[in-house]
Amino acid sequence: MGKSSLINKLLGGSVIKTGDIGSYSGRGKHITTSRQMYFLENGGIVVDNPGMREVGMTDVSRGINISFDEISVLAQKCKYTNCTHTREPGCEVIKAVKSGKLDEEKYSNFISLKKETKYYEMNSIEKKEKDRQFGKFIKGIKKELKNSGHKNQ
Q1: Closest listed residue to residue 61, CA positions, set 116, 106, 117
Q2: Count of structural domains, the chain
Q3: What CATH number does the domain containing 117 carry?
Q4: Reported pTM
Q5: pLDDT digits (tens, 9 = 90+) for 37-63
Q6: Distance of CA 89 to CAs 77, 112, 118, 128, 150, Å?
């Protein structure tokens, strides 16, 4: 991830030990072994954590609804209580986007955050199943392409 390297840049020197990019993987190597707080000259504070490969969101459904309160109000008027606001008939959110009452970019951001939240709320078994289904889908597409005479890129 290069967190320590980035923090070194912010600190203006080689304060934190870093490693080289692996020639085989093309990724950084885990060097940081403990959490450390650094104070920047401009008053900012950064924390270096060991071994993080990804950052995600957890327990944010309520926060999304608060941040997108306009959409939450519209959603209460949807025909279905479990409306995903993506394709259901009678969806007030989609209706507001189509009429221009709701900004399309705001709607798009809302949908993206909802999808990401749903993924992070899945347990490991559900994630594995989703990944398996996606792999199966890709395999099917490759087979169709091969049968239609297209070569894999």
Answers
A1: 117
A2: 2
A3: 1.10.40.50
A4: 0.47
A5: 888 888 888 887 776 555 555 556 667
A6: 12, 20, 22, 31, 38
